[in-house]
Design a protein that fits this description.
The chain is an all-beta fold and about 290 residues long. Helix content is about 5%, strand content about 55%. The protein has two helices and 21 strands. Strand 18 and strand 19 form a beta hairpin.
């Protein structure tokens, strides 16, 4: 059973991402499965990314009645077995390569040229399943591609009294976390001083486009400096033509020809939480709507 959820007149396939969460409502029909599909429904050119309740996944391509197995059903530890348990599938198309993910773990990649502009869900035979959080977006960057990023900005001259706003009495690095309470998946950029730099260093470097799922907390970087800058944006805005961002005017960074305004955080020691397991302090920034 195929259900097309979105059909668009034009699709720019470069750096396109499509994801959905699915929940098996029964584990009886373990030979069947469900997943996400994309392509040209009318022309019968589609790609199917399917998992089943017994912990296997497969990837198949249909071209006008001709079936091609891109990846035969294979066990994967990334699949969460059981009833009413979320498994998130995601495909990403970049530079004519198809990447397939299960719960944010890449399980397959191969050369691939997509056709069509339809996105949807697939349920095989009598498998019972529920879908949620379908998302089509344009990706900005991905670490496995090792894309060429701009050089970090040169150090700026800062008054000595500002430089001394560091943890001079605490040599251990601070683990910087972000809690995403925006209700959306967002991309995050941070400008920070590396934990290996002296406490008074103002040599800021950037970490680009960390993808944050909604309602989750993520470790970002370690630093010894109380100052950190960030910019975040709705992960779907490039595709749908909408812009929702969290930024400021405290610092500016240019990435891929675009200038971004970053918001300043001055981390307060009284807000740190010591983690004995990590043997370091943690600071959490909460992004809200």
């Amino acid at each position: 059973v195929w259900q097309s959820t979105q059909s668009l007149k034009e699709v720019v396939w470069d750096q396109l991402s499509y994801a959905a969460s699915l929940y098996f409502l029964s584990d009886k029909a373990i030979q069947n499965g469900a997943g996400i599909v994309f392509g040209d429904v009318a022309g019968k050119h589609v790609c199917e990314f399917v998992i089943n309740p017994d912990g296997r996944f497969g990837i198949f391509r249909e071209d006008a009645g001709k079936s091609t197995v891109l990846k035969a059903f294979t066990p994967s530890a990334s699949i969460r077995k059981g009833v009413n348990i979320e498994n998130r599938l995601r495909i990403s198309l970049r530079n004519k390569v198809l990447y397939c993910y299960i719960n944010d773990v890449m399980v397959h990649a191969e050369n691939f040229v997509p056709v069509g502009s339809d996105f949807g869900m697939l349920v095989v035979n009598d498998c019972k399943v529920a879908f949620d959080q379908l998302q089509v977006s344009r990706e900005i960057s991905d670490s496995e591609e090792q894309q060429q990023l701009p050089d970090p900005p040169k150090p700026v001259s800062v008054p000595r009294e500002e430089q001394e706003q560091t943890l001079s009495n605490e040599p251990k690095p601070i683990a910087f976390y972000v809690q995403n309470n925006t209700g959306k998946m967002v991309y995050l950029m941070v400008s920070y001083v590396a934990a290996t730099d002296p406490l008074t260093s103002r040599n800021f470097i950037e970490k680009y486009w960390v993808l944050l799922d909604k309602n989750k907390s993520y470790y970002i970087v370690d630093t010894r400096n109380l100052y950190i800058y960030y910019y975040a944006e709705d992960a779907t805005h490039n595709f749908w033509g909408k812009t929702r961002y969290w930024g400021g005017t405290s610092r500016y960074v240019t990435a891929k020809g675009k200038r971004y305004g970053l918001r300043e955080i001055i981390m307060k020691p009284e807000e740190f939480v010591y983690d004995s397991g990590l043997d370091k302090y943690k600071y959490t920034l909460t992004l809200t709507k």
